[in-house]
Amino acid sequence: MRKINTEVNLAGVKLKNPVMVASGTFGSGEEYSEFVDLNRLGAVVTKGVANVPWPGNPTPRVAETCGGMLNAIGLQNPGIDVFVQRDIPFLQQFDTVKIVNVCGRTEEDYLEVVERLGDQPVDLLEINISCPNVKEGGIAFGQDPKAVEAITKAVKAKAKQPVIMKLSPNVTDITVMAKAAEAGGADVLSMINTLTGMKIDVNRRTFALANKTGGLSGPAVKPVAVRMVYQAARAVKIPIIGMGGIATAEDALEFILAGASAVSVGTANFYNPCATVEIIEGIEEYMQKNEIPRLTDLVGAVR
Amino acid sequence: MRKINTEVNLAGVKLKNPVMVASGTFGSGEEYSEFVDLNRLGAVVTKGVANVPWPGNPTPRVAETCGGMLNAIGLQNPGIDVFVQRDIPFLQQFDTVKIVNVCGRTEEDYLEVVERLGDQPVDLLEINISCPNVKEGGIAFGQDPKAVEAITKAVKAKAKQPVIMKLSPNVTDITVMAKAAEAGGADVLSMINTLTGMKIDVNRRTFALANKTGGLSGPAVKPVAVRMVYQAARAVKIPIIGMGGIATAEDALEFILAGASAVSVGTANFYNPCATVEIIEGIEEYMQKNEIPRLTDLVGAVR
Amino acid sequence: MSKCKMQAEVLRQTQLTEDIFDLWIKAPQIAEEAKAGQFVSLYTKDGAHLLPRPISICETDRETGSLRLVYRIAGYGTGEFSGYRPGDFVEAMGPLGNGFPLKNKKAMLIGGGIGIPPMLELAKELDGEKEIVAGYRDVLFLTEDLEAQGRLTVATEDGSAGTRGNVLDAIREKDIQAEVIYACGPTPMLRAVKAYAAEKGIECWLSLEERMACGVGACLACVCKSKEVDSHSHVHNKRVCKDGPVFEAGEVEL
Amino acid sequence: MSKCKMQAEVLRQTQLTEDIFDLWIKAPQIAEEAKAGQFVSLYTKDGAHLLPRPISICETDRETGSLRLVYRIAGYGTGEFSGYRPGDFVEAMGPLGNGFPLKNKKAMLIGGGIGIPPMLELAKELDGEKEIVAGYRDVLFLTEDLEAQGRLTVATEDGSAGTRGNVLDAIREKDIQAEVIYACGPTPMLRAVKAYAAEKGIECWLSLEERMACGVGACLACVCKSKEVDSHSHVHNKRVCKDGPVFEAGEVEL
Ligand SMILES: Cc1cc2nc3c(=O)[nH]c(=O)nc-3n(C[C@H](O)[C@H](O)[C@H](O)COP(=O)(O)OP(=O)(O)OC[C@H]3O[C@@H](n4cnc5c(N)ncnc54)[C@H](O)[C@@H]3O)c2cc1C
Ligand SMILES: Cc1cc2nc3c(=O)[nH]c(=O)nc-3n(C[C@H](O)[C@H](O)[C@H](O)COP(=O)(O)OP(=O)(O)OC[C@H]3O[C@@H](n4cnc5c(N)ncnc54)[C@H](O)[C@@H]3O)c2cc1C
Ligand SMILES: Cc1cc2nc3c(=O)[nH]c(=O)nc-3n(C[C@H](O)[C@H](O)[C@H](O)COP(=O)(O)O)c2cc1C
Ligand SMILES: Cc1cc2nc3c(=O)[nH]c(=O)nc-3n(C[C@H](O)[C@H](O)[C@H](O)COP(=O)(O)O)c2cc1C
Ligand code: FES
Ligand code: FES
């Protein structure tokens, strides 16, 4: 066994390995701590949190699709107060990087949460400007390069932690959005959020989701996600967290070879709660087998 | 058995049923005529044809993905001369609507083909402004509303047959493109072409496709396609041909209920050569069971 | 760790009605912990169908470490399960959810349709006096097993057995008395049971159903409307998979 | 109709080497038509894996309407097939492709690795004198079957059997003579065979491999570079699935 180094550095924050969980698919870590040793993870990314509690959308909120799923949770969250009291102390117990995902309807909403987190033991902030499931805010910010740059600037001005901007795949040219976030001062990008989709129940002749549309995630979207990571990695200098359908070490390596410095596992947690740990082990094996000393040697290696 | 009517009308052209094949997945009909009685189909849509022969891209040109596939054929075609001599006479033998898919690198390329087809026994023209696999032309036209409107206008000025504009899903807002095509005078829209994607072979550390990126099709993309058809159907008055992952009658009905007047079957032909006929029969059964006298009663019925 | 995802061996499977199947699987870690009203998530073998299929625990046998699941074919997943033969394996996660609280009072167990199976394990776990009311469309199933656990009253929609009508018609007709009600079945039935319990002032516990993605409380897919702001979500939502599937009737809006 | 897609019953399956399997399926309509050098498309049962897995016909038995397929586990699909047991069904389409032209000349049949299987049916169909040359990495397979059809020369990369080296090393070492060459194997081998045939002025037919989507000539996925503008595409491309997989060596660029 040769010595391999799986560490990655995101804006000065060191992760022991590149594997984290995708926001909204892992709660705040507590539910899955019965399956996974959170200390193994490169980072935990929490469910999106807003300045006040959000009730989310009516049910049904999820539907299965071929190789994936649609969700329209609508960013239900208990608000920053409860989050700070309950979820941050829970995560404090673990030796893993803590990333808080922030959502909002207006710029002020985002800034309020970012400010509240300033003195909290949180390593990075991930700003979700790409949720397709809420009417105002969310995706609206993420589909216009001027808005992306403006919100990034505003967040950066208040943030005490490095800032990850989470981009929407529902755009004509992802490189335009990636560059806009970089221009606004983003430290890291994460992509992709979900692709907007719809399912119709032909027997009941109605929408499968109460919200009509939802966000498509899971292995079905992986080719789109890999392509966008590849394109963005060639357009900006800041690191990228890749996600979209990662379920195995091979999937994770696809994103890393395409240019992602780290990866998130989302939907796969739902059908394989141990996916993250299997991926970490699989990446280590791959590095051993191929005699790759540092994970960073693989980042963007296919071009 | 009640009498049901599956006829649909696309810009004055009557199809016996709403089921056609998607361009590029059925050759010009000859290869699949060993499996399917072409007389059963609502329409046959040919592989894209250009003014001169195109060699297409290097191989590998296809790769499998979860619930779908990537292709980067690169619009290989024998050019309009051979097409007119060989493929049109072949299709002439069958009692089905004939739709010719037209591709080009420049506006002039498109117009040359459209003019050549003017006196041919072809019912409709489908203009592909959304192929992600060729450098110039193709998708570039399909991602800018001004270009969509301009090329539509130019084609309409020359076309002797009604014109279908085939839209790209790789856009921020499909309704903008749909409206642009309508403003340019399009008679019908078809959507979606493929979503741009990428696959990396982690063992060989190279792209799975020689062209690096390719177009994602198959059941994996269906939720995105249904959503776009739904959105476009509410934005324009002209009929829409829906496609993207249709493999069963239920899939086809999803698109019809979302607002498509007709549907195309693409990738499914590859793994079930009889898919089209099964879908036609399944739609008839559904109409019988639910006592729907006319197929048109189902178009856009879920809203 | 109280939960686990495992490959469970199929021990036997029989067909109870045209579309209802009776599956025994070997899952010792799950059987060890399982309580009446909890469920397991089953996963298909097909790479295109990823989400869990939640199925209630119908019976547990701790000695053999096995679980009984009774389910109706409703779509792809249950269709796949119905083809399993002894020796096959199925991926199962559980036990999930809270389960029914066992009260030392005269109990009425009400099951409607495919909500009947969890009543069997509940009847086995409840020590006191119990009345079981089972509502069917037409064809009966599990009646012998239920009769072995308490007095059984049957209702059928077509009147082919027991009272013609639904479970409440049977309860009213037979004037069945109880101090606590446990119910599982379609939402209209649960709504009627809730109203009946309120009218009579009887304590009442309902097992709900909702579309799930994680099954463990992480994704917030499966919420139901709760009367009070709940302590987890701080909005009027409770998670069926984690805070439920069993709720005190007054807690939830149906 | 000369092609068909059908559910073929698995008759038997044996394991030849660590990763090579020998599968007999019952597919009367396909067996009826099949010729050496043609292939069938097999489809997995998994909804996430949609494309065909092209497998060459290793042997046909018209009397029993069955086909022999010998394949190496290369990924998901072949992995799935390797688990099939008698009585299972596999979806198969064929026969596809052109097949080898049968010439009345002294023939040399060259197979490399997993390109060996189609040489068995070819040897059976060729009447005249024939030399069979089979190149392996290390472990041999199908040698008994091949020996029954003609003189067999073996090459192994590790020298554990026959000539140490590749098929061309064996041909040169044994100075094997022929008037027509048929070859199937990895591209570097085919390139060397083509050069050898050209050098010696021997007629030569090569069976090529390419990624496929339709398998029937409709999608243009599987093209190879052809020397002449071909009559179908009117560009320098031929379809491996329809115009091939067998090409006259001079026709194609490798
Ligand atoms: C807590 C709980 C306990 C249950 N216990 C039983 C039981 O003991 N026996 C039984 O027959 N059924 C039970 N169900 C319903 C059962 O989960 C569904 O019938 C089953 O998931 C259908 O899956 P499918 O693949 O056959 O159908 P499909 O329609 O193909 O399923 C598509 C998706 O929708 C979900 N889904 C479909 N129907 C339902 C439903 N009614 N509730 C929740 N999700 C659904 C599936 O899980 C899957 O993700 C229970 C549901 C819940 C929530
Ligand atoms: C005309 C022809 C005849 C063949 N005959 C045989 C044979 O007799 N025995 C045998 O073992 N193999 C044969 N092959 C190769 C065989 O098709 C592949 O090994 C097989 O498709 C791999 O599928 P998989 O799902 O196991 O691998 P995966 O890597 O999971 O397959 C992914 C996709 O790539 C395609 N693919 C992968 N490898 C190849 C390949 N080498 N050629 C073409 N497509 C590929 C698969 O069909 C599938 O669509 C033949 C290929 C061709 C083109
Ligand atoms: C149920 C669910 C809830 C999600 N909630 C959030 C969220 O709160 N904030 C966010 O930025 N992304 C959210 N996402 C998007 C994921 O973080 C991720 O970007 C996406 O699902 C793609 O990855 P995957 O295919 O691995 O799931 C959610 C996804 C799912 C499936
Ligand atoms: C192999 C292949 C070739 C294609 N060639 C063309 C083409 O020439 N012109 C075109 O407009 N669309 C082409 N398409 C796109 C399809 O017509 C269709 O829009 C898309 O595949 C989505 O439908 P599906 O998921 O049913 O395949 C091609 C698709 C595939 C898979
Ligand atoms: S299914 Fe995820 S919270 Fe209940
Ligand atoms: S695989 Fe489609 S043309 Fe050969």
UniProtKB/TrEMBL annotation, chains A, B:
Needed cofactors, names only, are: FMN
**What keywords are annotated for this sequence in UniProt?**
Cytoplasm, Flavoprotein, FMN, NAD, Oxidoreductase, Pyrimidine biosynthesis
For this chain, one GO molecular function annotation is: dihydroorotate dehydrogenase (NAD+) activity
Give the gene that encodes this protein: pyrD
Q: Please state the Enzyme Commission number of this protein.
A: 1.3.-.-
Q: Which domain of life is it from?
A: Bacteria
According to UniProt, this protein's pathway is: Pyrimidine metabolism; UMP biosynthesis via de novo pathway; orotate from (S)-dihydroorotate (NAD(+) route): step 1/1
The question of whether Nucleotidyltransferase is a record keyword is answered with: no
GO biological process, alphabetically ordered: 'de novo' pyrimidine nucleobase biosynthetic process; 'de novo' UMP biosynthetic process
- PROSITE patterns linked to this entry: DHODEHASE_2 (PS00912)
Q: Where does FMN bind?
A: S23, K47, G48, N101, N128, K166, I192, G218, G244, G245, G266, T267
Q: Which residues bind substrate?
A: K47, N71, A72, I73, G74, L75, N128, N193, T194
**Compartment list:** Cytoplasm
Kindly report the protein's main subcellular placement as a broad class. cytoplasm
Q: What is the official name of this protein in its record?
A: Dihydroorotate dehydrogenase
UniProtKB/TrEMBL annotation, chains C, D:
A GO biological process this protein is involved in? 'de novo' UMP biosynthetic process
InterPro entries according to UniProt: Cyt_c3_hydrogenase_gsu (IPR012165), Dihydroorotate_DH_ele_sf (IPR037117), Dihydroorotate_DH_Fe-S-bd (IPR019480), Dihydroorotate_DHASE_ETsu (IPR023455), FAD-bd_FR_type (IPR017927), FNR_nucleotide-bd (IPR039261), PyrK_electron_transfer (IPR050353), Riboflavin_synthase-like_b-brl (IPR017938)
Q: Which residues form the FAD-binding FR-type domain?
A: 3-102
What's noted on cofactor binding?
Binds 1 FAD per subunit.
Q: Where in this chain does the entry annotate a coiled-coil region? A: none
Ordered alphabetically, the record's keywords are: 2Fe-2S, Electron transport, FAD, Flavoprotein, Iron, Iron-sulfur, Metal-binding, Pyrimidine biosynthesis, Transport
Kindly list the positions annotated as binding FAD.
R53, P54, I55, S56, V70, Y71, R72, G77, T78
Cofactor(s) listed:
FAD; [2Fe-2S] cluster
Instruction: State the pathway, as annotated in the record.
Output: Pyrimidine metabolism; UMP biosynthesis via de novo pathway; orotate from (S)-dihydroorotate (NAD(+) route): step 1/1
Query: Which HAMAP family does the record cross-reference, listed alphabetically?
Result: DHODB_Fe_S_bind
The text of the family note is: Belongs to the PyrK family.
Q: How does it assemble?
A: Heterotetramer of 2 PyrK and 2 PyrD type B subunits.
* Protein name according to UniProt: Dihydroorotate dehydrogenase B (NAD(+)), electron transfer subunit
The gene from which this protein is expressed is pyrK
